[in-house]
Amino acid sequence: MVGLGPRKPPSRKGSMMDVPRDLLDQIKWLEEQFYIPTEKLKQITNHFIHELEKGLSVKGGSIPMNPTWVMNYPTGHETGTFLALDMGGTNLRVCEIRLPEAKGEFDIIQSKYKMPEELRTGTSEELWEYIADCLQQFLDYHHEGEKLHHELPLGFTFSYPATQDYINHGVLQRWTKGFDIDGVEGKDVVPLFEAALHKRGVPIKLTALINDTTGTLVASGYTDDQMKIGCIFGTGCNAAYFENCGSVPKLAHMNLDPEMPIAINCEWGAFDNEHVVLPLTQFDHTVDQESPRPGQQAFEKMIAGLYLGEIFRLVLVHLHETGHVFEGQDISKLKKAYTLDSSFLSLIEEDPFENLSETADLFLNRLSIRPTQPELELVRRLSELIGTRAARLSACGVAAICKKKNIKSCHVGADGSVFNKYPHFKARGATALREILDWPADLKEDPIDIRAAEDGSGVGAALIAALTLERVSAGNLAGIKAENA
């Protein structure tokens, strides 16, 4: 099987010799379910290109391809002091970033604040006032005794689906990450946020509202001029890249310079919601059907960290119910939806012992299950298959953007827990990219290299605020709400 890499670490060679025929048959069946050959990867990539183009069209498609109104690349010479606010699912992070004269350099100070659980279902006023209070605390602590004579520009990383007609504006489409606050969906979040700042007299001016993926693209481009694409492979998945305005038909009515760059936030987790090309298993269908929003985020549900553990769990429950594993054992803990996340699979793949003793301990401590040695071999192989499939599918999106833009050589900045922490994810994705793009086997280094990204939600947000102010001072107000400029 080309592209899967070593089946197991060298120290464990031959361990399948002791697996009974029944479990070997189940492993073979799982390989058929989860392995994606080269030709299928190419087919997915070609459909991906079509869907990217469809999203840029007037009619649109499943992949939103949102214009971000980030209209220029960083040069590495941006200067000034900027704030960045990152509103995540569990924490609020505030950063102050100083961009000095030295190209590509920055200094950062930051503080984290816990988002109280009750805010997720509270009122709009409570949410924005809490955020304003955290910003005030940050300034009081880091600028104690100082008199700020001007409003500090802020880049706000608001990583929830939002429609943007301007870079300093964003209409929330829907809450995600467990938030369900009335009176915010369908509204521009910027005036709500600024009203809370004004009420407290906090000397901050929101300059740019961004998505973390766009921030990743810009932050990585600031330190590396070969960077062309930014990706997130974490709890969710997404990508951003620079398009020419002339290649975005849905912006034609604005009569922008066709050569002017604009960053596109793909929101590619929605790729193939129509289930045309992705090789969905029965377990993928179950994940979709039992999710809060069936029929949405088809691609994300196959590769994002939120779902890998759930796919793994569903397979094991199925194998137990069909009489193949954990016979006579209580699997009630395993039957609880989303009781496992991608870190569980990571620990299994990292187990260095020939007898998989750490995996056995993991099952006993977390699930009260005592797997047999052959069952441990199956569990190991299943985690490899699910992790490998995710990595190989992730390469299809990167390859699609490169083929669409005719990019032959570049760096891709990737962030997120799956990319940074899941064993072999980067190497498996690189292998798939080689297969899709038909690179010669004797290449010394990959022309398109996916590498760890800079801090998009911090440094990226600050840089985008800087780039926006540069455009304002140059009189280029495309995509900037005039009264807020």
From TrEMBL:
GO terms for biological process: D-glucose import; fructose import across plasma membrane; fructose metabolic process; glucose metabolic process; glycolytic process; intracellular glucose homeostasis; mannose metabolic process. Belongs to the hexokinase family. Pathway: Carbohydrate metabolism; hexose metabolism; Carbohydrate degradation; glycolysis; D-glyceraldehyde 3-phosphate and glycerone phosphate from D-glucose: step 1/4. This is Phosphotransferase. Residues 27-222 form the Hexokinase N-terminal domain. SUPFAM superfamilies: Actin-like ATPase domain. It catalyses: D-fructose + ATP = D-fructose 6-phosphate + ADP + H(+); a D-hexose + ATP = a D-hexose 6-phosphate + ADP + H(+). Coiled coil: none annotated. Residues 228-467 form the Hexokinase C-terminal domain. InterPro entries: ATPase_NBD (IPR043129), Hexokinase (IPR001312), Hexokinase_BS (IPR019807), Hexokinase_C (IPR022673), Hexokinase_N (IPR022672). GO terms for molecular function: ATP binding; D-glucose binding; fructokinase activity; glucokinase activity; mannokinase activity. Its EC number is 2.7.1.-. Keywords: Allosteric enzyme, ATP-binding, Glycolysis, Kinase, Nucleotide-binding, Transferase. The keyword Transmembrane helix does not apply. GO terms for cellular component: cytosol; mitochondrion.
